[in-house]
Amino acid sequence: MRIPSSLRRASKLFSLWLIFAAPLGAAEHPAVPVQLKIGTILATNQAECLDSQLAKLKQQLEVVKYRCYRLIREESKKSSWDTNTVFEIPGGRSLVVMPYEFRNARVALKVRLLEGEKPIVDTTVRFPNKGNFLLGGPAHEGGVLILSISAAAQ
Amino acid sequence: MSDCDRIQEWLGAWLDGELPQARSAEVKLHVEKCAACAAEKVRIQRLDAALKRALEARVSDAAFAPFWAGVRERIAQEKSPRQRVFDWMRRGVAFPRIAWGVPVAAVVLIALFSTIRPSGWFVPSNQASVESIDGHGFNVALLREAKTKTTVIWLFENQETEDENPVEPAASEQAF
Description:
The complex is a heterodimer.
Chain A: H1 5-26, E1 34-44, E2 49-50, H2 58-61, E3 68-79, E4 85-89, E5 93-103, E6 106-115, E7 118-128, E8 132-140, E9 143-152
Parallel strand pairs in A: 2-3
Antiparallel strand pairs in A: 1-3, 1-9, 4-5, 5-6, 6-7, 8-9
Chain B: H1 3-15, H2 21-33, H3 35-61, H4 65-76, H5 81-93, H6 96-115, E1 129-134, E2 139-145, E3 150-156, H7 159-164
Antiparallel strand pairs in B: 2-3
Helix pairs in contact in B: 1-2, 1-3, 2-3
């Protein structure tokens, strides 16, 4: 069946709209910078303890079943969207965080943990604005490190 | 893909006479020389024959005479004005250009929903969602706990990597 030229033209225009409008719709984020906060926690099984600064995180930390949690570093930085922000992590490690999207009150971050120059993990996580997630496992001083990664976009 | 794989993909179409002349000749020549493809051809022919027999057996059971009589009667019947209007409307709806409208409308709706999503249209989960993880050779576990809305990405050493390097065993508690 021969496709009428008007329909052919309309379908081309529609394809163009799909190609250009879809990425524009996906890459939305507010003009204001995003506040990133990384808490580095040392979890061990030596004795029962909870750092008083970690009271708000107590319930979340209980998910990983260690006996003792100490906050060994806390760092907060303002970051522009689509820009890498680097946080120093004990043990010669670093955490590179790039906020890249804000949609439906959820922040999307690209996170890379490095040991020296070597990447350990790359992940993309989306979570509620002013919320957090935990990244744990790296060995440190007889225990493991747990990173609480949070972001506030507004 | 080997010659035989290619030929065997075409065998069914060749036996049904659906291949262009040049390809049909190619298949014929190959089948004459290749025992495996010839055997495959026989298998397909047997299956076709079995199917044909089964269909013929079922068809012989059906009484078609009253059906054809009904068709002839309907053709001979003068159509009522109402029936003619109904037929005209049905032709209009079945017109190919209108039939295009259904998939086009579906695509437009999908595009609208995927590009225009004002906040508040749906309530997203208040828990973190992990869209991708690459452990770069390390094992990664994902823990999610709904009660405390906790999402944990946990890294631990790959057991296989340990086995491959027996000279430097990792400490049991160490993740890296």
